[in-house]
Amino acid sequence: MTEQEDPDLALVQALQNGEDRSLNELMDRHKEGLFRFLLRQVRNEADALELTMEAFVRAYFNIGKFQPKAKFSTWLYRIALNLCRDHLKSRAYQHSLQTVSFDAPSEDKENPTMLLAAERGPDRSTACREELVALEQAIKELPEELKSVIILIALEERSQSEAAELLGISPKAIEMKAYRARKLLLKKMGKKGF
User: Fold this and answer.
1) What does the alpha-carbon distance between residue 113 and residue 137 come to, in Å, rounded to a whole number?
2) Would you tell me how many other CB atoms lie within 10 Å of the CB of residue 138?
3) By C-alpha distance, which of 66, 76, 51, 31 is closest to 166?
């Protein structure tokens, strides 16, 4: 892979050669997108921030294993996705699901559990907010392999080939999972009256 194909390649090579300051620039380039991706997965700002930092730590300590067969960002998101899966399986997370209700109404417009909270303003109608909350709930209820696909393709606006690379499956499998996820979401939204 060349620098034209992967704009991070020069920084990765510098980091592999012991230039630790390159990590700062890589973090500046990717921390916001990675944080948003993880927030949509775990629906908790503190957990998403911790997982974001852990992903960069893992990337730093494993940078020697990086092979430029894929983009650095793809490799980084795959690390983050694996951390996220481990987190979602953890007992602490399972326990938090029992003690914290994401369905409870909230007056806080900055609520990090809201999937698109930053995009909603006071000018939005109540009906639109109800639909967004219903959609968030429907995405949350999807099976894990479908939820990851729909978040990558629909919310993160990744291509099917990028999503396939991140998840380690074929583009055709991504296409089928995206189709199944959309079909389930339409069914769930229909049942909720949307």
Assistant:
1) 11
2) 20
3) 76
Question: pLDDT per residue over 59-105, tens digit each?
Answer: 999 999 999 888 999 999 999 999 998 888 875 656 655 544 455 55
Helix (H) or strand (E) holding 96: helix 91-99
Q: Within this chain, do residues 3 and 52 fall inside the same structural domain, yes or no?
A: yes
CA distance 120 to 14: 40
Closest C-alpha among 23, 14, 8, 152 to residue 71: 8
The set of residues, in sequence order, having a beta carbon less than 8 Å from that of 186 and lying 6+ positions away, is: none
Range of the domain at 96: 1-100
Of the residues 100, 133, 167, the one at which a domain ends:
100
Q: How far apart are CA 106 and CA 136, in angstroms?
A: 14
> Alpha carbon of 188 to those of 37, 116, 172: distances in Å?
23, 19, 24
User: Final residue of a domain: which of 68, 100, 132?
Assistant: 100
* Report field, pTM of the whole predicted structure over 0.90: no
Query: What tokens does 62 get?
Result: 């494993």
CA distance 59 to 52: 11
Which segments within the chain are labelled E, that is strand? none
Contact yes or no for 142/152 (Cβ under 8 A) = no
